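Aim 2, interim progress. The first record below pairs a target sequence with its structure tokens.
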Amino acid sequence: MDGTRQSNVLFVVLDTVRKDRLGPYGYDRGTTPALSRFAEEATVFESAVAPAPWTLPVHASLFTGLYPSQHGADQGSPYLDDDVTLASILSAAGYDTACYSSNAWITPYTGLTDGFDAQDSFFEVLPGDAFSGPLATVWQTINDNEYLHELASKLVRIGAMAHSKLASGESADSKTPSVIDRTRSFIDGSDGDEGWFAFVNLMDAHLPYYPPEEYREEFASGVDPDDVCQNSKEYNSGARDIDDDEWEAIRGLYDAEIAHMDAELGRLFDWLRETGQWEETTVVVCADHGELHGEHDLYGHEFALYDELINVPLLVKHPELEADRREDLVELLDCYHTVLDALDVDPDAALDAGDGDSDGDDGDGVTPFDPTRSLLSSGYRAFEDAADPDPGQRAVLDGDGGNDEEPDGGADYAFVEYAQPVIELHHLEQKAGEAGIDLPDDHRAYSRLRAARSTDAKYVRADRIPDEGYRLDEDPDEESPVDPTEDDVVAAADAALARFESVVGGAWDDPTETAGDDRDALADADEETRDRLRELGYLE
């Protein structure tokens, strides 16, 4: 970092929030007065790209600085294994650390809360300790045993159970006020030697939408949440149609949820200003991914890598950053290095001093601080200066120089990965089956997806559906696919993706098998595992 160190970091994730529904990005419905005020003293990034379109892998990347294929946290193996988290590093360096969330994936069970001195998921469907201890051990045993690996999909569906219950109005009350209150209490009581790091995930804008009445009346007047489609799988499977009026109602409820989040976040911001902590606190606000409301004939945030999902809002307040807008490419995994830079913490030194485990590389152990990935550095994304280039850096560097085969050589790229889902696929098949619909083998729900995105173009590679290329500078809504043989800029994105794939383990272009029959896998489960499944309601 080129300037002075900050004492504290507040990191806020607005779960499932599209940037085009926020005031700082030009939305005019007045959903975000607090964020709009914040944007006046922050840098607003126009081209921030998430490494995946859903919560678990994105948060794992935020906490490790690694791509999903490096850290491996996904629905097939939904936990961080050997990678040291940002919170663990900061805790070892003497910072008080806390995580408050109402997202089921951000729990001790997945390893995402490792290193937080205080944490509470506010997730009411299952008790907090159901996601840690013996269950986590059972999960890892299953994944490490080839005979039991298929059973992993059974446990993953904990999330499916949880989201099904959350989809009812009676369980849909917002936990955001409690999350904000607990965050304030943590900050107020912090006595860390260095300062504090608070991570907050606000979940209101995730389906289902049941905003408080005050905000529903303002943004979706007369709309009953129980009268609109609140299950994306019904629509995506073809079992349910949604007309223009219903889409308008759904978007109104979504806006109301965002407005409620903004008000609560503004309450926290105002308190930090009033208590004199605002100036010494770096504030990062982003979304982990966006949401589709009928665009590309999809609902929710599965089965695609369109920009509504992966080009996310990102606003950062720090003395080294001007209150301005930036058009250059940013990857969310750069936030890991940015936080370390803001607090002037070296991971290896911190973990050595705190007896932490800093051994390992390539996603095994701690990710070293890299100034070329810090938003605060004058050398940001000057990857030629990276000491040990990661897969994304190598893919960009290998295309630099503008050779004849890659006409757009030298362009910067972000990379996105989406492994085949389990929960979403299970529910999609269930909804289709109930409606008597047979999903074809080439349905996009069965596809793994990877993408390379620059500010001008995107190329998406898939294993069961056709690849897609777009000129984002000419077609930002991605309505007209472009063949790379007919456009040099799209061809360059295709080539960048190929370079990335060669580093992380090859292209996802061969169709994969879907999850096997869980009943067959159960026959191989030991009695302890079966007992755990009974506790979770999967077995009689």
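The second target in this work package is listed in the same format:
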Amino acid sequence: MTEQQHEHVRVAVIGSGFGGLGAAVRLRREGITDFVVLERADSVGGTWRDNSYPGCACDVPSHLYSFSFAPNPDWPRTFSGQEHIRAYLEHVTDTFGLRPHVRLNHEVLMMRWDGDASRWEIETSQGSLTADVVVSATGPLSDPKTPDVPGLAGFPGKVFHSARWDHDYDLTGKRVAMIGTGASAIQIVPAIQPKVAGLTLFQRTPPWVMPRVDRRISGAERWLHRQLPFTGTARRGLLWGIRELQVQAFTKRPGELGLVERLAKANMNKAVKDPELRAKLTPSYRIGCKRILLSSTYYPALAQPNVDVVASGLTEVRGSTLVAADGTETEADVIIFGTGFHVTDMPIAERVVGADGITLAEAWKDGMESLRGATAAGFPNWMTIIGPNTGLGNSSMILMIESQLNYMADYMRQLDVLGEGSVLSARPSAVHAWNRRVQERMKRTVWNTGGCTSWYLDASGRNTTIWPGTTTEFRSATRSVDLAEYEVTRAARHRPLAPVGAAAPAGEADGGAKDTEAVA
């Protein structure tokens, strides 16, 4: 395909969740309007569009789980439900004029770096385009993970993942098997328990669950936040500060989490009187090793007579009979997988081909690695939002996203200063140095020492998802781009023409032009 046959943009943003929409807003604020947001679905919203299961809500307070540049004084509850967060993202899209940039139903099939032209060739389900810069904001919670259970294909009933909820299927009176005990499952179980005939929870590892102190935000509070915006800012600041103070216990002194464990056990003991069930639900690892879950209805639901907890994972399906690892057999009409997502093996990585002709997945075969959670060696003019080691165990990911948007903004400024056709590619030495520091800090954290196996760890047991520090530290580390950490080149097509009669640049006297020119 020739250059004239397809569209070219300055920036292509992949995904329209918090990361993608935030990137779009920041680009416009930087004066960059030549960009598109490529979204594979038919609406914006990311994980808050996809996860519409009963009871879906956020476990971070509403006023902290929103952009600082787009405060919402009208959050209806202290912990917002999925429908309110999705509506907020639609509101952000409209308020900041993003609709003209968003391309819905444009799934990215492949992205390839063209070294000759110094741009990305992007193939989508609706055609092709090219871009100088790619900002990948697909997010780690976008592609559901369903285990390969022997016999599952022969199950005669209904099967779906929590992130692909079938709203046309009525669970009333059905025998339901819930697979998994993560953040989705503890919301689904109490939401569906009253209507189903029977609910069997297959639990490989019990989670630590703290009470969810949720309440309606009064009309007076909302009026105050509308009339005096600084009160909403102060509320957000207080929520942020409390969580910053908690970080030390997770990252440096996990032993201090013992008190939190006692509070979590009290939460369970209050609702669960059966000692046998209590034993099944009591974790054997340090709290915080897996994400601490919030619910005041999960344990009461498990104590109901139509609920059974199988303290073992699902290993086989024989017709309508589900067999657990401990041999327990259960009859079911419906199987719901709450088994998480492809986090350390994101499918988008298979669709990104870098300067060396290898995919990002191949480059990350020994574990995800990036510079400051944003850029990867061998992938020029490419950035990711919510990249490796940017996740949090106790606070709002929006804080991390906004820090990465700062980095993205300075990245674009540096390219502008360097001139048209300039390319930034993270130096392998800088990427490795950054990750060595991160992994060294990770050794002391509860996520590595707490005695659990979590989705934070990759196949080799390395924690490539969590940030081992405060959000303040991360914001400082991503405030600006250090050009010493990058190889800076310029495309040959953008070199100034030599004066007539001037000697040809070295290496071009024989007519063989080089692709790029190092400028730093």
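The radius of gyration is 25 Å. This observation will shape the mutagenesis plan for the next reporting period.
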